Amino acid sequence: MKFNKIVKALTLTAGLAASFSSSAEFMDFTVDETSQNGTTVVADKINGGFVETIAFDGTGGFTATAFATFSQLFSNEGQTTLTNSTLGSDYVLYALFTATGTVEEETFAGQTSSILTGTSGQFTLYMDRDANTTANDDFSLNDSGDDLELGSSVTIENSIGYQIGENGLFDFTFTDFALTDDGSMYFVSPNPFYMTVNVNGDFDTFETAAVQTTTGDVSAVFSNAPAEVPEPSTLAVLALGLLGLGASSRRKAK
Fold first, then answer.
1. Considering only Cβ atoms within 10 Å of each terminal Cβ, which end of the chain, N or C, has fewer?
2. What residue range is the signal peptide (predicted)?
3. Average pLDDT of the chain, as a whole number
């Protein structure tokens, strides 16, 4: 299920859903694609999909590792696909990111929900120049020898995942993001580059026990402002929206 559909459902429910991803300010950045048969383009969001493994320790903690592939650049507040970009055709971007944290279970409107709060983690972004890198089940990589590391962060803050019923959303923020020399040749503006990466999207529901694998959509935006943790009232609105979205999906299936 696409993230924008979830956002629309939440907005119809109560108009507060945007605060769940309040850090997604869609700040412009410029990338130089001349080495990848392109030009210089201005974007404000990168978009793709991910696969993630989450291990629960049975005492309220979790460890997650994800491989995300980004194949689209967007502009216009994250609404318009850049058709003049060669991302997705001549090359792709991918990221490996990890998080550890705590998980809490609660009941809302008769449904059990899970709140995952990230307390530590890291994010590393790469360019796959010939779009052939894949990840194994243990997240080791294949055909990555000619890939370029663009930037990384080892600081995670204000990060949360929320699932209820058949749907889930996450909003993870990595700060102190620093470009490599190769990254500075790709992300050419602003200079110095943004220090915050906000990674958010949706995921398939999973049990919060043992080791689980999930997939979903993911977007990344950059800024210098830290994200804000959603207030409890916002989480309640989010739960209502996810419940309503699940009920709508079940009606359509029937």
1. C
2. 1-24
3. 83
